Structures are given as structure tokens and as C-alpha cells.
Records
---
Amino acid sequence: MKLEGLRVVDLSQFLPGPQLTLMMADHGAEVIKIEPPGEGEPGRYIGPRQGGHTVFFRNTQRGKKSFCANLKSSEGREAVLRLAETADVFIEAFRPGVVDRLGVGYAEISARNPRIVYCSISAFGQDGPYRNQPAHDLATEALSGIVSLNQGNDGEPVMPHVPVADITASLHALSGVLMALLRREKTGRGDYIDVAMLDSAIAWTPNITGSTFASRTPPKPREERSLGGSAFYNIYRTQDGRHVVLGAQELKFVRKLLAELGRLDFVELCEHGPGSHQAPLIAYLRELFATRTRAEWIDWFDGKEIGFAWVNDLREAFDDPQVRARGMRLLDEDGHEHIGPPVKFRDEPAAPRLRLPELGEHNAEILRELGYDEASIEAFAKTLESGGPSHR
């Protein structure tokens, strides 16, 4: 696999860092998850459980090794530093300054391993006025402006159900890590990477910054192409209370559908982009789609190249034949579901290891590799007995 031979030490928790290292593990990297004594990674306790583990933990920590260490003890700190000496990548996702106080910051680790690629993921980054503020996904999405764009029928902002800032930060961090690893091939040196969730969310707004940059005014969501201001980029309710979408506003698709419907008189409304002038066409399509069920519209559109789709719920999505065909739903030996890897290589494709680690399962194995004798391993285990539930 593409990342086979790389060792990654993962000191992150929750979603952005673990999602990054999950993608690396799926493509062959050896990922060693550092967990605090006591309860371990918080993902072990978030959400519904199945087969002894939470579904969340299964889809963020599979295929990794678990190394339990009390970083507040000198023994735990030294073990992690020695482990980092053998690593290619080190990931952490605490607020700025936490890893430095724990003695496992970039300065300490790069001094021992100049080739290390060290990535810090945080809400606001390592500098700026908000750097020390505690925050999760929602706060960073709110400050990025994204929440203001997601409006309900009453015009009020609505809660985002997919953690956009978490996932975008994870993807940007992965790209940064891979760039640094590629550069290391020429320079022989590692690097430090600073990824902020707020920055990552902001970076995903180029489709909506037109008025913001051109006239210094915020967009009007209901008039924007991607937010409901286009008749051919919109969501419509069907007779049975389900929903379908039109998701392609190129004029060739507009003309094709309106010709099928005998309403070419509406084409001119789509020739000048999205906006309130398309309201009559949106109203017409709302009435039209309400005359048939979702299933009936799926049959009607079958074979027509118009950019039509139906709204699946998440269960339907994972049962969808396209999702199944692409390997985005995997089953482990116990029949439990996993989200599959989205990157498909022709050569050396991903081969996710679906086994889940128990807390500290690999301690003895890793300590032996680092040169600890059996007495030292036993002594190290005793340092975990007084550890708290968090590295913080």
C-alpha cells in the first residue's frame, strides 16, 4: 500500500486528528494511538455501542495500535519521546501550549528526530487572538460564516449535522503531512505543520464569496446558487413527503427538462444566474414535484441526463447500490459496518484493517521494541495506575 513503512504517532482525540490517521492506516501506515490511562480516547464512549465498542470509535480508530501512557509522569513522557524517535509523523490536536507543557512539543521531539513531520490541529491555530480559546466544530463553523449560510425556513441559522470544520481540518492536515513527507525525500528534514479548523472552514467557501469580496456585503443565502437561489440547484418536496433535487443548472440541462415539461418559456429566467428573478420557476417546480411520489419521480427521470437525484437518509445512503459498488460500506468479521476509504488507487489500493484496539493493548510490544526489559515494562504499567482520564 502507498503508506506502508511509515510510522505515525497519534496524540489526537475526537475527530480531526483520528480521521487523518485513520486514512493513513487504511493505506498501510502503522498508526500508534497514544491514549491516557483510565478511560482512554473519548471516542470509546461517544454514541451507540455495538459489539463492545462505539460505532464512532470503530470508524475513527480501526487498524491502529493502542499505547497507553501517562504523559504527566516522567516515565510516560520519556516513552513517548523514545517512540517519536522511531516515527515519521507525529499528530496532536490540543490547544496551543498543551504539548509543550507535557514535554512532547515540536521542539522536544524534533531535537531527538529532525526528520519528524509534526502536525498540530487546533480550533484557531497556534497564533492570533483566539488561539487559547476552547472550541469544537460548531464554534469554528460559526466564526467562519458557514453557520450564517445554513438557514431554516424561518431564516434563522440551523445546526450543521456534518462537522465540516473537523473534516476539512483533517483533510488539510493530511495534505500538509503528505507534502512535508514528499519534501523530506529531498531535504532529509521534517517540518512543523499548523492547521486550524477555522482556517480550514474558511478555505471551503470560494463558491460563496462573490459578493463578500466584490462589494464587501454578505451573501443573501436564498438567492445564491448553492443555497437555494437557483431553480435547477434546489431541493423539492414530493407528494409522499420525501424530497428530490435538481443539481445541475447548466443551460443544456435547463432546456432539456423544460422541453420535456413543455415550459421552455421559463428558460430565460435561468440565463442570468441565480437570484430572486427565478422565484416563479422555483414555485412552478415546487408545485410540479408535489404531484408525484419520490419513487414515481425516480422512474420518470430514469435515463434522462438532467442532474436529478433523490434525497437519501443516511441508512438509505449506506444501502445504496452505488455506495456498495464503490466499497464505501465495509463489513468486519462480526458483521459490523465500517465507512470505507474514499481514495481508490488502481495499484496498491487501500486495505483497511478492521480490528479495533483495546486500551493499552500494544504497550508491551511497543516498549520491548524500544528496548525496555520486562522489569521496566512492569514498572511502566504501574505509572498508569495513578494517571487521570486526560492528557490535558
---
Amino acid sequence: MTKVKICGIKDLKTVTILNQTLPDYVGFVFAKSSRQVSIEQAKKIRKQLLPCIKTIGVFTEFKKQTIEILVEQKIIQGVQFHTKISTVEVDNLKNKDLLIFQIANKTTKPAKEVDYWMFDSKVPGSGQLVDWNQIDAKGHPFIIAGGLNANNVGAAISKLHPGIVDVSSGVEKNGQKDANEIAKFIRSVKNADEKNK
């Protein structure tokens, strides 16, 4: 079964639909972005989310202190890096029982030890489609992000068989997460999994 990550959650309004549709993961963006949240905002949202939904902190640089606060306060269960990280950093994060996602592109070769390699467009969260023909995970578990929506996620699953599909702008209307789009996206993933059994 393909897992789903809804990224860029920044307000409590979205929690109701997330608790109804049950994505596997929700992403909190701590990097500079229109979807950036503070530790306090993330904490409030985490408290309202059902415990079965894992939360992932998204970073464009390794912020040890922020990550430690987020872990101590049980705000995140995983981290996603759009940057290089050292083997020592990976080991430290693993010791905290965190899931680790890392971007894979021309400038960042992901560590073998991370849980998932992530293939995304050049500008994450922009809605630009990642080039599916350029994806080579070399047998490593991987995530597809970049330009996914309810209309194309089924094709991505059929062609690439990712472990996780990650969506942000593809479930938004006017820059806000939309309950109908989230429900449609998750339904499309389930339908694709049924077809590919």
C-alpha cells in the first residue's frame, strides 16, 4: 500500500479533514516558506491530530536545537531534509527513533542510511511536476513529490511504485489546504493501489 504525506499543514482548520481521511504523514515546514510554521503552531496542530498520523518536520538545513525541541515535546516523529546531512547526524536522529526522509537530486546525494529518498521538483511546494523518467532510487525506498494531485497521482503510483506520495499545493485552493482536494487525493491513491494489486 502506498503511504500518503500531506505537507505544509499550518492551521487547525485542516485537522478535521486529516483526522477523517487519515493520511500516514503530515508535514510541518520549519524552513522559510509561505507554509512555514512556528514550533508553537506545530504543537497545537499535533495535539489535535489523531496519534496514528505521524508528523514530519521539514528543513532546508540541519537545525539540531529545533529538532531536539520538537522531539522532546513530541511534536514530530520524523524529519525531512532538503539538504545534505552527515552520517553522524543520521545516527543521532536514528537514536531518537525518528523517521528520516532526504531529498535526492543532482546536488544532494542522499545517505543510504535514511529511511526514504525523496524525489521532488527543483522548487518544493511549487506544484511543478518532477521528471518521472529521471528517478532512479537504486532499490532504496523512495517518495515522489512535486506537482502531484488527485488527477495524476494514480499514474505516478502505476509507473513508479513509490513507498510514499507527498502532496502540498496539489491539495490547495487559493493557497489554502482544501478538504475536498485532500479527500480526492487520498481516494485516488487508494484506487491506484487497488488497480495495481
